[in-house]
Amino acid sequence: VNENDRQQLNNSICNNLHRNSLINLRNEHDLCSKRHLDLLKECGLLELEEFTNNINATHILQKYVKVRDDMRGQAHKLAMKHRHSSFFELLSRAENDCLVYHEETCTLSTAETTTSSHATTVNGIKATISKIENFVRKYQSNLGTHSFLAGLHRFIHLQLHPKPGSNLRSNDPSYIIQWTIRCTVLSEAHISCDGSDDHAYVRDALNVLFSLMILSKKEDIEGGTNIVDAQENSSEPLISFEFHKLVSNATLRRILNVLPRPKNLDAKATGTFVVLGQTENESLVSRENIDGHLDEPWPLFEMDFRVDFCTLL
């Protein structure tokens, strides 16, 4: 068989395959159009002849790939929009749940609520520590939580230990750290311990955050001094937190003691950490109980020497 004959044979085989493929494609398209007419119209695939009449297979494939990629892109955007919407609904619900607590249990202080005592009572602080311990026990085995846990540890550590050489002091009531994270850190973690509740991890993480922090508003995140340089994708929604003004440094040390150490985590801290400053763009609420003078005294037999002795010093 010479080269020309071989080429003709190959062309004949390709044409037969192409013809058979088109027949199968038309049959599948007819079946699909009966079931999903509106969907085919939306993605521009209702008129099959537009693709099959063109004998240029490469061009057909390119057109198909473009339509497919466009539809996938739209589906991805819609899915992300839905997940973001669901997340912010959970965020709002968690914040509102905190606001409707009784005065002795509320952890969030705003203009509409009375001053919280939950952050200063022994039982309130124990409840917060217990909530964080349960969260760590439940989720630390999942690597998807490690960046969040590392970020939480870093957040508390920076509030207690200002960056060396910054001339800032941890006992200065105006020294306030703000933690900004992408909402996808929580919403895209896809962590479910029982396999039935896809939002359990998000709810538990938000409950931990609101047990000792407040959600920063837009006007509260202007300016500041960057402590940790990190690139954030501006297309992703961001949320920012700072510690409740009545949470003392002693309480933060107690919480830090129950969090896993960074060396035991397989991820770096997520988010950015900023020192907020008193500027014309910011209206800061100083930490009123930084030295713990409003904290209820702990029973002697329940005192943590490392925490309480450091507080006295």
Helix run count? 10
Q: What are the secondary-structure elements, in order, as H or E?
A: HHHHHHEHHEEEHEH
Computed structural class: alpha+beta
Radius of gyration: 29 Å
Low-confidence parts:
100-115, 218-234
Mean pLDDT: 76
How much of the residues is beta strand, in percent?
5-15%
Short description:
49% of the residues lie in helices and 7% in strands. By secondary structure, it is of the alpha+beta class. Strands 2-4-1-5-3 form a five-stranded antiparallel sheet.
Structure, described:
The chain is of the alpha+beta class. About 50% of the residues lie in helices and about 5% in strands. It has ten helices and five strands; from the N terminus they run H-H-H-H-H-H-E-H-H-E-E-E-H-E-H. It has helices spanning about 5-35, 35-40, 50, 55-100, 120-140, 145-160, 185, 200-210, 250-260, 305-310, and strands at about 175-180, 215, 225, 240-245, 270-275. It has a five-stranded antiparallel beta sheet. Helix 4 (about 55-100) packs across helix 8, helix 6 (about 145-160) packs antiparallel against helix 9 and helix 9 (about 250-260) runs antiparallel to helix 10 (about 305-310). It is elongated and about 95 Å long. The N and C termini lie far apart (about 95 Å).
What is the topology?
Layout: H1 3-35, H2 37-42, H3 49-52, H4 57-99, H5 122-139, H6 146-160, E1 176-182, H7 184-187, H8 200-210, E2 213-215, E3 225-226, E4 238-243, H9 249-258, E5 272-276, H10 305-312
Antiparallel strand pairs: 1-4, 1-5, 2-4, 3-5
Helix pairs in contact: 4-8, 5-8, 5-9, 6-9, 9-10
